Amino acid sequence: MMQQFVDRLSPESRRHRFFSESAPSTDLVAALCDSSKPRIQLTLIVTRIWEGKLRIIAAGSYWAKNEHTAEVAMAVDDEFHGKGLGTLLLERLAFIAIRQGFANLWAVTHVNNVAMREVFRESGFSAHEAYEGEDMEVQLSLVPTEITVTRAELRERLATTASLRPFFYPESVAVIGASRDPKSIGFRLLEALITAQFQGAVYPVNPKATEIAGREVYPSMNAVPRPVDLAIIAVPAEKVLPVVEDCASVGVRALVVITSGFAEVGPEGNVLQAQLVEKVRQHGMRMIGPNCFGILNTDPSVRLNATFTSLFPPSGRVAMSSQSGAIGIATLGAAHRFHVGISSFVSVGNKADVSTNDLLQYWEEDPVTGVILLYMESFGNPRRFARIARRVSARKPIIAVKAGRSRSGRRAAGSHTAALAASDVAVDALFLQTGVIRAETLEEMLAIAAGFANQSFPSGRRVGIITNAGGPAILCTDACEASGLIVPELSVQTKTRLGTFLPSTAARTNPIDLIASASPQQYADAIATMLAAEEIDALIIIYVSVTVVDTAGIAEGIKRGIEKGRATASTSKPVFLVWMAEGDSDRIFTVAGETIPVYVLPETPAVVLGKMASSAEWQQRAVGVVPDFDDLNLSTARTLCTTALSQRGNGWMTTEETRSLLRAVKLPVQPGGVALTADEAVAVAEKIGWPVAVKLASHQIVHKTEFGGVHLNLTNERSVRHAFASITSELEKRNTLAAMEGVLVQPMLTGGVEVMVGVTHDPLFGPLIAFGLGGIHVEILGDVQFRITPLTEDDAIEMIRGIKGYSLLRGYRNQQPADTQALEEVLLRISRLVEEIPEIYELDLNPIFALSPGEGCRIVDARIGVSRPTAGLANR
Ligand code: ACO
Fold it and tell me: 310 C-alpha vs ligand 1 centroid, how far in Å?
């Protein structure tokens, strides 16, 4: 195939790629195909079914020029020039080259090769150019910069958004497998499209039928008279692949595969799904599903209901992706009740091609969507999710329910979607770091969505409460405080205003209790007053039908109050209503076109407001910075890991290796050294100064204290010799002397707070960093904060402040505060280290002594486990 690709290149393209118009030798072409040693050379190809055959349409390679630099070259089939393939190839080659330890890419190109020069420029990598006659040499530095990252993200976003548009804005839709049986899914799909009044053309396809639901039916896609943008496929699983082929042959760009019987049913289904994805990608199409419930776009200019339920939710600003069809149906059904208007909905099914990450990028750009809901059972690629969600949530709130918190829940999720369930600690960390709002239940998700979709963000956390009954107001106040909100005292000015219309029996504190006999006008006046009060950022109005009162009149009074308050104080403060009126099920509450979210329980708006306040703070925050350290000696660190791996395989590094590695990345390792004999131990002690600690150095023995391996506060030569002898004899007694690497002699540390930093490796999320108090605290109290890498500076600060024992670090009673800045730096350096060296799968710095501010910290004990990283391409 490579030979054919090269042969098909025009003479000019061939000259640009191979510096000769004649065909390159077969040996050279064969060499291009060998990517078995990526440290030496690698080739990436782009394939596409074109003119009925699978062909290579672009290829790019690099070869090691020296240890740090690889030469790069590429060619794109002349038919596919100008489509961004060169830029993408360079981006991917650069990504792999960085992982292989190269720092630069080098290329030589003809000065007239404008397209290639544009590719280099477009990459965003900083370039150094030199001219040599007609040739130009370019050296690209592969250090990722803000420009390279932003450009790569932009390219991905634009490409994804464009590829998904036919799903949401098709001009014509085919239903393949439209069935004559009114109870079948195929029939209901067609019926739903028609009932929702899809604004484009609908083409039912079924070889056995001529007419269904009053529509002409076409025997195959080839028979459909006009181009089809979107095909909904509901034919039996074994027929899906040929149907996809038919779709490709008539230029369909988007497929929704409803059919089940793929990865969710086991290995055979997995194979079928892989074949399906391959076919879809080879033809440059996109696919939602398989095993999904369909998609929906409520935009009045489209009115697309490509699902098999006739439910068509009210249109609005909320987009939703659901990994479960059933949950999707239930949520769409409940949307109306919660005043949640839907912009578009996607049941992602097995996420074989289009993923939640792709949809996030689409909705980020979609002008109709203002809030995004996700029902998730698994993550395909959490690291990509982290990157995208962090960016999107800075503009549009993302509210997610992640199912599978419990062990048995996780089992169910795993079997349902054939996807890996993520550990919950990692999920919590991921959401926290990306500003995603986690809802515990579907009901909570919709309640939160109602707030986000219909009301503005509060400009602060201060809440005013108006009620006509004490009990619900107390519960609401407690819930506000539990959600991090404040229910403040009212100002004298507000109290005075309230006094002009409230009876003396009514409370003028916050909550304002209008008492059971509250009249519509008192509600109206109290609301208008509170909306004008400067000490309040949001308002919760509670109404309970405690006595026989004019409920309809109260509703009118509330509306009047909101309208007056909005007009006179010109405020967009969020307002929520708790409506606890017997027999009153109509809870849609609109005031001058504005929907006021109505809840039945007094705690709910408090939870919603808490999330809205956090989201507002998140959006105001500067984008987190992952700091760059220019003093890390990563090549030494990497060599230490690979040497340990080649000598002993997967496992712990020795004490000496561990200390050298930490020193290579400028981490504050407690001074001292490993001594092989008692004489050496004494020499080290004398060099570092008394008193010292002498500890067993062994990568095989974990619990050193239990082996009598730790001797502290040694003040003289005799005690050091005694410690050495005692450790040796204890190991001899247990027949484990071979496990001894020597003893680690360190100066004794006094004062400071003991903390720990750890890294564990989640198979799906990658490295997870832990921070907690050191020693016994971490195990007994479990007071640990976890984050996924890479850490931003804010992540590091929040991890330290997030532990319950933070008051110890801040200085407790007459204890000195600790140097938290130094701890932040340790976290950030470790984050960078494990990101750069995937061989490090486990790490434990425990204890680290945090000294007084300005004095830094000292890593006293450390363990690093290495393992060969498993290869594999990132999931979507
Ligand atoms: N092109 C067009 N139409 C075709 C083709 C073809 N190549 N092959 C078959 N058909 C037609 C048939 O003629 C038939 O029409 P008819 O009913 O008028 O005779 C129709 O397609 C259906 O074919 P059947 O063989 O009867 O298919 P069956 O009913 O067995 O299965 C379906 C259809 C819906 C794809 C089923 O296999 C399936 O996968 N069901 C589960 C779907 C699902 O649950 N998805 C997940 C949703 S999420 C959630 O559940 C909540």
Answer: 18
